[in-house]
Automatic annotation (TrEMBL):
Record protein name field: Glyoxylate reductase
Segments passing through the bilayer: none
Positions of the D-isomer specific 2-hydroxyacid dehydrogenase NAD-binding domain: 111-289
Keywords of this entry: NAD, Oxidoreductase
């Protein structure tokens, strides 16, 4: 019997790809960006498995193209919002993902953005590079104090909790909003669960750590941004569509928000004419919260492990649609 045919949609860590050598017939997309849609459409009917990234649009239409031998979709990411999980489950295709290994790196990055926005690090750097070194003065690039400030964490899963541990070290008071609050965690983390409006009203800084879902899409809109404490800072390392870009722009222009730091945007890449790009108090990074060397290797290795398990018809180590598939 021929070895399984797989397609890897981006060149991932060589150490991880090595584990596939001799076990599968593998093709790796060598482009600098994701493969075009037509490329995926042409390949899917002939594959046994696919190793995908968030940038691959695996909607129901695309999943319907998978051939009769297709038996695993393994995504190198914790999020699977690019994949129609219901369509995959209906075809009994397990969807692998890579939770856990990127938690600490993403929490580090949320803190990096929080610190940079609060203390105007990027603004200072931009000024110096533009040849502007203003003589020291008591009011030059004065930012916001983290110590003694209140951080509102929206979403208290793995990453939200890791942010809470870090923020405690900075002497911050912590408020948390979660759609399913587990009150046992209040004592463990020294946090207080509150409603979203209460969190927005009291927080000097708000960091978003919810999944993208119908409930969280557009969660930060004109109404909720208008409930934020005047002069607050918003950090988004979760998913772009959770924050409405026009509403954010208006909140920054009106001075309701002092600053925003975004690692994700709707859409990605951010349009070149977005007014946010011209605002000195906005930091934008290109979806790199998990981009740390060991983390990327761990993610690639888990994605490969999930892929091999799925090809062998075994349960995946981390399966995003395990509940829908039920017992094997
Ligand atoms: C990844 C992410 O960098 O894992 C996720 O859900 O958003 C990021 O950590 C990226 O999406 C890789 O596909």
């Amino acid at each position: 019997m021929d070895s399984p045919r797989i397609f890897v949609t981006r060149r991932i860590a060589a150490q991880a790809l090595k584990q596939l050598e001799g076990r599968v017939q593998m093709e790796v997309w060598e482009g600098s960006g994701p493969p075009p849609r037509a490329e995926l459409e042409a390949r899917l009917p002939h594959l046994d498995g696919l190793l995908s990234l968030l940038t691959d649009p695996l909607n129901a239409e695309m999943i319907a193209l998978a051939g009769p031998n297709f038996r695993v979709l393994s995504q190198m990411a914790v999020g699977t919002d690019n994949i129609d999980l219901a369509a995959a489950s209906a075809r009994r295709i397990p969807v692998g993902h890579t939770p856990g290994v990127l938690t600490e790196a993403c929490a580090d990055f949320a803190m990096a953005l929080l610190l940079a926005a609060a203390r105007r690090v990027v603004e200072g750097d931009r000024e110096v590079r533009a040849g502007i070194w203003r003589p020291w003065g008591p009011d030059i690039l004065v930012g916001k104090d983290l110590y003694g400030g209140t951080l509102g964490i929206v979403g208290f899963g793995r990453i939200g909790q890791a942010v809470a541990r870090r923020a405690q070290g900075f002497g911050m008071r912590l408020l948390v909003h979660d759609l399913n609050p587990d009150t046992h965690l209040e004592k463990c983390f020294g946090i207080q669960f509150v409603s979203l409006p209460e969190l927005l009203r009291q927080s000097d800084f708000v960091s978003i750590h919810v999944y993208l879902s119908p409930q969280t899409r557009g969660m930060f809109n004109a109404e909720t941004l208008g409930q934020m404490k005047p002069g607050a800072v918003l950090v988004n390392t979760a998913r772009g569509p959770i924050v409405e870009p026009q509403a954010l722009q208006a909140a920054l222009e009106s001075g309701r928000l002092a600053a925003a730091a975004l690692d994700v945007f709707d859409p990605e890449p951010i349009p070149a004419d977005s007014p946010l790009l011209a605002m000195p108090n906005v930091i934008i990074t290109p979806h790199i919260a998990s981009a740390a060397g060991q983390v990327r290797l761990n993610m690639a290795q888990i994605a490969v492990e999930n892929l091999l398990l799925g090809l062998a018809g075994q349960p995946l180590r981390f399966c995003a649609n395990a509940a829908a598939l039920g017992p094997a």
